[in-house]
Amino acid sequence: MNLLPSLLLLLLPLAQCELLFVAVIWRHGLRAPSRLPYPLDPHNETAWQRGWKELTNEGIKQMYDLGLWLHNRYTVENTLINSVFNKKEVLVLSTDVERALCSAQSVMASLFAPEGEFVWKRGFAWQPVPIHSYGEDRTDPLLKPTDFPCPAYDKLMTADTHPLQSVAESNDQLFKELTKNTGMEVNIKNVDDFYDITREMAHGLKQPDWVTDGLVDKIKEFKRIVRTNEFNSPVKARFRGGYLVGDWHSRINAAANGEKKAKKAVLYSSHDGTLSALLYTLGVANDQLVPHAAAIIAELHREAGKDFVKLWYRNETSAPTSDPVQLTLPGCETSCHLATFNAIVAPLTLNTTKQLEELCSSGSPFLSSLFLAFILLYVAISR
Ligand SMILES: *[C@@H]1O[C@H](CO)[C@@H](O)[C@H](O)[C@H]1NC(C)=O
Ligand SMILES: *[C@@H]1O[C@H](CO)[C@@H](O)[C@H](O)[C@H]1NC(C)=O
Ligand SMILES: *[C@@H]1O[C@H](CO)[C@@H](O)[C@H](O)[C@H]1NC(C)=O
């Protein structure tokens, strides 16, 4: 008996389920604080091997582990991409911030370690992989949208009361003690900055006695409230996440349509605010802080001739084997039919920096085009 035909039949359902495209955006790994966290802090810059703001060895390890996980998921479990880097398949984008660039390099080290003819030095399992960035002297509207000048967003934020206003009175004593211990005036406007203490703790730096577990929990909570408040409404989120959603929307559709320029994988190295904005824009946020090395993933699958989008959040980062959680776009199934995905996502997109600038100056790219149309009509009529 010939087993081959029945084997092929068995394989058929598998062959019908194909992964066509993936977009992955991660937050850089663990890092040093941006500056001395507070005047009386016993840990100055010499405590950080690469200096303020930079990735640490722990952070590099996290990103390397993410690269291993991506390697396994997209070159072994699914053979979406080749296990050696191929520029026709893969595009790597990073902000121009050093910790993001170094994070991208750390991911690439394990995702695309050289094999076979790509080994260029015996016993050295590393090869260079191109990483694109927007340039040091410009704000990156796609991957560092939180720095993009946006008056309409600023106006919206200053109109609100401070997110910690409601907890100010009940924490008055705490702020007084912090002022005494840190050597600086502490109030609701800066208390979330002490989040840097958690960076020190994550790197095993010894804390003074006044840094209790209770205090650390409070500071984490203050940080969570302040940070999520920057993105936690559809209107706020679109200013910061709309352009990236537009980019994903267009790349997913380019892959579905088999466009020549379409990549199989686009990988983005960025920052917590960028990931938070994306989660809130898509309506899938969990109101928590985005952990270091966390990744948001969109996959395009073709199953029996139909295209589906699946979203994942890999926010558990402790090991290369950590599983992601699946996210469900509001109004869609977990496996979201591409047409439905497009219908839900299109209104959230911004497709060009011009549209972003328009939204940021007027509050609505639609309104300003409408306005322009009226002017043109007026000019036409009055001639
Ligand atoms: C920084 O900290 C180290 C270790 O505590 C200390 O030896 C050094 O003098 C400090 N440097 C400055 C500039 O304060
Ligand atoms: C990860 O995200 C899921 C879904 O939002 C949430 O339930 C979980 O608490 C998060 N875990 C971490 C470590 O952030
Ligand atoms: C962005 O492009 C998509 C696809 O063409 C479209 O559906 C969407 O409305 C566009 N968004 C804006 C703000 O023009």
Automatic annotation (TrEMBL):
Keywords associated with the record: Membrane, Signal, Transmembrane, Transmembrane helix
Residues that span the membrane, as ranges: 363-381
KW Metal-binding (keyword) present: no
Gene3D superfamilies according to UniProt: Phosphoglycerate mutase-like
Keyword Transmembrane helix: yes
Reaction catalysed by this enzyme: a phosphate monoester + H2O = an alcohol + phosphate
Name recorded for this polypeptide: Phosphatase
GO molecular function ontology, one term from the record: acid phosphatase activity
Source organism (scientific name): Pristionchus mayeri
Family: Belongs to the histidine acid phosphatase family.
Residues making up the signal peptide according to the UniProt record: 1-17
Domain of life: Eukaryota
Entry-linked InterPro entries: Acid_Pase_AS (IPR033379), His_Pase_clade-2 (IPR000560), His_PPase_superfam (IPR029033), Histidine_acid_phosphatase (IPR050645)
